[in-house]
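Hi V.,

You were right to ask for the full record rather than a summary. Here it is.
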Amino acid sequence: MSAKDAKTPRVFLIRHGETEWSQNGRYTGITDLPLLELGQERIRQTASVVFGFNRLIDPRNIVATFASPRRRAQHTLELLIERITDEETREVFESTVQTTEQIAEFGYGDYEGLKTHEIRALRHQRGLDRDTPWDIGRDGTEGPGGELPDQVAKRLDQLIDQIVSLQGEVLRSNANVLDGDTKGKGDILIVARKCIYYFDICLFDRCLTSIEMAIFFAFSSKGGLDCQWTPNWS
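Predicted structure:
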């Protein structure tokens, strides 16, 4: 990472570990399932590599942590916090945590707990999608608690506004201002699930017209780096 990037506030997105439904392909929104042992272990493995002092995600540099209210996301966050052995640092990090519905999973409504082929069959019975198969990113969901893509994008955009506000001052500062105590600080951590992909889309859309966030990373629940993006600063 260049010296310039090292001073740039970043956004880290971590997907929660696997649950029974995520493992077998069922859409999980408000159903509060626990993490499987496998899901917990994979989060621990990911955390051991990327989370901790002088690692990619250094808790001392985090100014805000946004987490879905669902049990699976909260447990994932707890597993990350376990990595912080210094009590003072842990207390400071925990003070940054905000549990918010803005980053909650897509509202699946009638499709909660169903698999993709079951949803498509249900919609076909309702006279929908005669020509084009159902796609959640285009068609959204039905029934009480269901959401359309633009509704999800709207709440995620509100979260992005908060992040832009938090990081804006750091991004506008020059290298001299970033020297000293503020150097390297300003990172944001987000813990959620599939909603993260819609966050990515909203983020890309915002950054196409203005450089508001410099770098973001998304980590899968299987321990890998899903994506990394850095805008052109030249």
